[in-house]
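FIELD: query
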Amino acid sequence: MFSDVFGEAADPRWLHVGVFASPPSQERPHWVFVTSGLSNPWESDEPPTDPAEPSWLGVEYVFRCTQGGDWAIRMVQRVAAFALLLAHGRYPGREPLRVGDRIPLRGPVIPASDSALTWLVVCPPSSDPINFRLESGSVEFVQLVAVTDAEANLARAQGLEPLLQVLRSAGAYAVADPDRMSAVAG
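FIELD: result
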């Protein structure tokens, strides 16, 4: 992933980062994909002195979708790889990913489909705890929400909260439905 997609060499510690896929269940009717390993303390041998200090990157990404498949695992893997590269200065002048950031998919969320969802937005979690603490530091779950070009443009122009209001009103937050139309005209 690092060399093929980003043209970068991978730090061996990064190869322990993965994505878990959880199919629909009686408790929830959708798929959940979540990163694992971005909060492992790879770069520290000692517990932090400040409890607010993050455990490694201090984040794990969650993507919820009405459909499952290898495409979703690969997409979340790309986000994790991009987050690692940003956090380790491989893109000078770029800050690490944070809530409100938009990530272009450069095509439909499901490759070779006609889905209108072509962006991911990093959002607050919809149901999981926002923060939790490990012995190695704090960790935050953040939500990856798939949106259309028009919805990404709304977030760019007006900010995250107006987009979230529109998505909530349309029933499009936080579970992605690759078959949905845009909740924003445009």
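FIELD: remark
Strands lie at 18-22, 31-36, 54-65, 102-104, 117-123, 131-134, 137-148, 175-176.
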